[in-house]
Design goal:
Order of helices and strands of chain B: HHEHEHEHEHHHHHHHHHHHH
Number of helices of chain B: 17
Strand order of the largest sheet of chain B: 2-1-3-4
Helix content of chain A: 40-55%
Helix content of chain B: 55-70%
Shape of chain A: globular
Strand order of the largest sheet of chain A: 6-7-8-3-9-10
Order of helices and strands of chain A: EHEEHEEHEHHHEHEHEEHH
Distance between the termini of chain B: 30 Å
Shape of chain B: elongated
Oligomer: heterodimer
Structural class of chain A: alpha/beta
Largest sheet of chain B: 4 strands, mixed
Largest interface: A-B, 31 and 25 residues
Number of helices of chain A: 10
Number of strands of chain A: 10
Strand content of chain A: 25-35%
Distance between the termini of chain A: 35 Å
Strand content of chain B: under 5%
Largest sheet of chain A: 6 strands, mixed
Structural class of chain B: mainly alpha
Radius of gyration of chain A: 19 Å
Chain lengths: 260, 402
């Protein structure tokens, strides 16, 4: 379970960044996340929807303890991300679109590395590694170096890396970006499996078909503000436009005019 | 602690599998010293052979008098004598390289000499000629003058010793190692320092900026390892890699000493160099060198890793770290200048103290006080660099920049 209370995160802009963003009059400080409240429940897929730069990745990084909140707090599985960062990370899996593997290591070495870093004992690590390798078909290339793998193969290793320590909370940050349909399909499968295993899942995406396929709860975030937060079923029932895309654009534009 | 070891082991394996890093870290330092010493040895041997074979073609225009000059020259080694009647022809022949030098004695030269009226002879040559020829000309002139003086002194029955009533005889007590150490001693630390840096550079770039670029840094930060553990694991790898480079270059020195020692054609100079190298290779010197290079490595590792963390990409890290070389080369070269020695003030200047310390360790003239101060200063600099670098790594702004 993830509970986010009054969460804000602001960044101070460097001179260079200000120059690059001179069209947007907003002073020195950017409010990437603005007083957000959310709850993600186990066994449900919580989807975070928003355009690029809305604050999705910042929110997920805050959950994953990579960033520290400016104010407010986040509790993951009963642990505060600032006070108990290490406990939070132990129960957390994090998967992004970039596979982020080491070219000169084999899948076997990569998984050992992350398993050990996550504090797993050796026998559990080896057992789970074998299970996951067999399940995803990594076993046949487990001892070859990652460098020459196809994106699909890398993605499988990446999934094992995320799931090796059996995390109770799994964060997916645009997990299918840059993947072909087959590789993307395996990610969708993984998310469904996590749901069946009663894990807490938070998914950030801007692909509407995925939203439609997977969401139980939905939050729409736009320019750091939470503009919708509720059941996905309710959202669909109350749409003013005929498609998800159009409805999303309508909400975004409406919020844009309120902000201005 | 367990995490640090896990990270260190993984990073080390990753680094050792990178062929480019490996060649920069091991191969080049291993090969550079043997290449330099064998090169110098071969060059010196060939030069001294050349010098022995060089023949100076000399022409004399004597106008019927010269007071035994041609007789003297004919007896000098490496000289071939021809006679020409005209200075114009002589100049032409020198310029088109059919002779190397010409001596002109004016009319009345001999009688002027006899009267001690003071006279001159002229010699034509090109100063851009090769140094052996110029050296032979100078020898001829000096020898001829000496002969004239001797002759004159004999005429007035005065002993030659009047010119030099007493002779100072030099008895140099500096060992060969000290003498050569002060000459080559400067260049050896230069390479030690450069290799420490080069050994740190590539792993540092790969372990921070490279990891950022590949997108794996985020994953690592989400693991249960703390930032400080990640940082220390990486720093240890970078520092070790620089240290391995330095070790490889010391191994290169050992190989050089062996190779020169085995080569029968090496001249006596090179044998002395070989002796010098063997002197450095004694355990106490090597230990002192390593003790000076270890904190230097940590210092370098902390700085390179800090810049690499700040950089967004591999390329950016490279362009930030490469200019550091200038800051390292400058004090190193300053340490090679004559008269600059390790004392209680130079021991406080980073890199310069390593350069000077290593130089004196090599020549065997190191003094305990300044050496200890050097160690202390280096350790403090390394710790400061480390602290700044850790703070830098803990700042989310730097780590997620880009």
């Amino acid at each position: 379970m993830i509970t986010i209370t009054n969460l804000s995160k602001s960044f101070k802009l460097s001179r260079q960044q200000k120059k690059e963003m001179r069209n947007v009059p907003q002073g020195d400080i950017v409010h990437a996340v603005n007083n957000i409240n959310l709850t993600c429940m186990p066994g449900r897929v919580f989807t975070l929807l928003g355009p690029n730069g809305a604050g999705k990745t910042t929110t997920l990084r805050l959950i994953a303890t990579i960033l520290k909140p400016t104010s407010g707090n986040i509790v993951v599985n009963g642990f505060d991300t600032v006070k108990n960062g290490m406990e939070v990370r132990k129960s957390l899996g994090f998967l992004t679109g970039s596979t982020g593997l080491y070219d000169r290591l084999t899948p076997d070495e990569t998984i050992n590395y992350f398993g050990r870093l996550n504090g797993m004992d050796e026998s559990t690590l080896q057992r789970r590694k074998k299970e996951l390798f067999d399940l995803l078909g990594v076993t046949e290339f487990a001892h070859r170096r990652v460098g020459k793998f196809s994106t699909g193969m890398k993605q499988k290793v990446s999934i094992v890396r995320t799931m090796i320590h059996d995390p109770q909370v799994v964060v997916f940050d645009e997990p299918t970006s840059g993947l072909d349909v087959i590789a993307a399909k395996s990610i969708i499968e993984l998310i469904r499996q996590c749901k069946r295993d009663n894990k807490t899942i938070i998914l950030s995406t801007h692909i509407m078909s995925e939203v439609n396929m997977l969401s139980d709860d939905l939050a729409i975030i736009h320019r750091g503000d939470l503009v919708y937060n509720g059941l996905f079923a309710d959202f669909k029932n109350n749409m003013k436009e005929s498609t998800l895309e159009d409805e999303f654009i309508r909400i975004a534009l409406e919020h844009e005019s309120v902000k201005a | 602690m367990k995490n640090i070891i896990t990270i260190f082991k993984k990073e080390l394996m990753d680094t050792l599998r990178d062929k480019r890093t490996l060649s920069v870290m091991l191969l080049i330092p291993l090969v550079v010293y043997p290449a330099i010493f064998i090169g110098i040895s071969k060059y010196m041997t060939s030069q001294s052979e050349k010098a022995g074979q060089e023949i100076l073609r000399v022409a004399i225009i004597n106008n019927g008098n010269e007071q035994n000059f041609s007789q003297y020259v004919a007896g000098a080694p490496n000289v071939k004598l021809t006679t020409i009647t005209d200075t114009v022809v002589a100049k032409e022949q020198i310029l088109n390289d059919s002779i190397d030098a010409a001596y002109y004695f004016p009319v009345g030269y001999d009688s002027a000499l006899v009267k001690l009226a003071g006279t001159t002879f002229q010699y034509f040559y090109t100063s851009t000629n090769n140094e052996f020829e110029v050296a032979i000309i100078q020898n001829i002139n000096a020898g001829y003058q000496q002969q004239l003086v001797k002759q004159k002194l004999a005429e007035v029955s005065v002993s030659e010793t009047i010119l030099e009533p007493a002779t100072g005889q030099a008895r140099n007590l500096a060992s060969t190692r000290e003498q050569l150490g002060s000459i080559v001693g400067g260049i050896l630390p230069y390479f030690f320092i450069i290799f420490c840096m080069i050994g740190c550079m590539y792993p540092a770039i790969d372990l921070a900026a490279g990891e950022k670029e590949r997108g794996s840094l985020e994953t690592l930060l989400v693991s249960s390892a703390s930032r400080i553990e990640i940082y220390i694991g990486k720093l240890m790898t970078v520092a070790l890699s620089g240290f391995i480079s330095a070790l490889a270059s010391i191994a290169g020195l050992v190989i050089s000493a062996q190779l020169i020692g085995m080569d029968a054609t090496s001249g006596s100079d090179m044998m002395q160099v070989s002796e010098l190298l063997s002197g450095i290779i004694e355990p106490a010197s090597i230990l002192m060198l390593l003790a000076i290079l270890l904190p230097l490595n940590i210092f370098f590792a902390a700085i390179t890793l800090m810049l690499s963390i700040y950089a967004r990409t591999f390329k950016e890290a490279q362009s930030m770290i490469t200019p550091l070389m200038i800051f390292i080369v400058f004090p190193t070269i300053f340490g090679m200048l004559p008269g600059v020695t390790l004392d209680y003030s130079t021991a406080l200047i980073p890199i310069l103290n390593v350069s000077l310390g290593a130089k004196e360790i090599i020549s065997g003239t190191i003094q305990t006080g300044p050496l200890l101060l050097t160690y202390a200063a280096l350790i403090i600099y390394a710790l400061i660099a480390l602290l700044i670098s850790v703070r830098f790594f803990n700042n989310e702004k730097n780590i997620l920049r880009g």
